[in-house]
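I can't quite decide. Please look over this sequence plus C-alpha cells:

:::
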Amino acid sequence: MTPSASANSASPNSVLANSRRRPTAAALVLVALLGSLLLAGAPAAAAGPVGYVRLAHLSPDTPDVDVYLAAVTGGTPQRFPGVGYGTVSTYQTVPTGTYAVSMRAAGAPATDPPVLTTNVTVAEGKAYTVAGVGKHADLGLKVIDDDLSLPPTGKAKLRIVQASVRAPVMTVSISGGPVIADNIAFATTTDYLDVSPGHWTLKAQGAGGSPSSTLTATLTSGNVYSLIVLDAKTGSGLTAQLRSDAQRTGKVPTGGVATGAGGTSVRNFGLPLAGAAVLFLAGATGLLARRRRRPVRVPSHR
C-alpha cells in the first residue's frame, strides 16, 4: 500500500509557505528585541517639573577649566572637562531645585577645592546660563536669567553678551543700519531686544572705533538668540558668535552649541533613541508587511 503523501510529507505548497513564515517570524522577534534594547537604552524622562541650565567660560585670560554641576541634595555631579574661553554648553534639562556650579583647573582631581563655586536655583520652565566672567584676577561665576519667551509675531529676539576685555565698552549695530545696543560694558549682558528678522551683517565695535568684528547671520522670525562677543584667539581683534537659545518650533531651549565637554559630557539621548526605535520598528514592520503581501510563486508540479 502506497503511503499517503499528505500523511508523511508536506505538499510543495505547504513547504514553501512554511519556509516563508519561519524567517518572517524570526525577523519579527529580532525587530522586537532590537526595539526593546533601543528603548531600554533611552533614559526615562525626568519626573516632575524641570528647568534648564547651561554653562559658559567667558573670561578671556583664564585657562581651561573643568566645570561641575551637582544638585545640592547630593548625587553624582555632571562633569564638563577642559572647557575653554568662549565655550557655551547646550542646555541641560534638570529637575527643579538648587544646584552647585563649581570650576576647577583643567585636569585637577574632583576632590580638590574648587577655584569658584556658586548656586543656581532652577524654577519650573525657566532657563539659566552660569558663566565664569571677568578677568582672571577677579574671576567670578555669574548666574544669568535667560528669557526664552518667544518674541512677538514677525520679530526675532536678540541680546548681547559682552565678553571682550579688548573692547571694555562696545556698540553692536547692523552694518550700515541702526544701533542695536551701545555702551555695553565688559562682563555684562544686555536685555533681550525685539529686532527685525532677516539676513544681516552684525557689527561689534569698541569705543573709539577699534577693535571691531562683523558677523553675517540670519535672524529667523520667532527665534531667540544670544550674540556673544569675544576676544579673538589670535591677533588683537574681536570675534562674535551667534547662539540660538530657543526656536518658535521647539518645545524646549535649543542651546545650539557644542559643549566642548569631551567624552564624559552629559547629553539627553532619550528622545533620539526612542524616536530611532519607533522609526526602526515602523520601517521593519512595513517591510515585512510588504513581503507578506508579495504573491508567492508555486512551482508547477507535474
The radius of gyration is 29 Å.
